[in-house]
């Protein structure tokens, strides 16, 4: 059975930099940026997409619905 993967997209200007998604991800796919978004926050970004196991924890955790997860079967 092929490993499940997902393409994770974070809408940077919805992000308020709470870091919950970074901490929720079991595979260190996400990290905080070194630049700020339009709201003035360091935002979460995808830094290791191939490691994603499509668990969706990040999307479930985000209080601002800034994360989109497109699961690939
Ligand atoms: S779906 Fe799971 S593995 Fe993929 S980025 Fe989100 S929390 Fe990490
Ligand atoms: S959980 Fe949502 S608001 Fe918080 S850092 Fe991640 S993307 Fe940004």
From TrEMBL:
It comes from candidate division WOR-3 bacterium. GO terms for molecular function: iron-sulfur cluster binding; metal ion binding. Keywords: Iron, Iron-sulfur, Metal-binding. InterPro entries: 4Fe4S_Fe-S-bd (IPR017896), 4Fe4S_Fe_S_CS (IPR017900). It comes from the Bacteria. The keyword Endoplasmic reticulum does not apply. This is 4Fe-4S dicluster domain-containing protein. Residues 6-35, 43-72 form the 4Fe-4S ferredoxin-type domain. Pfam families: Fer4_7.
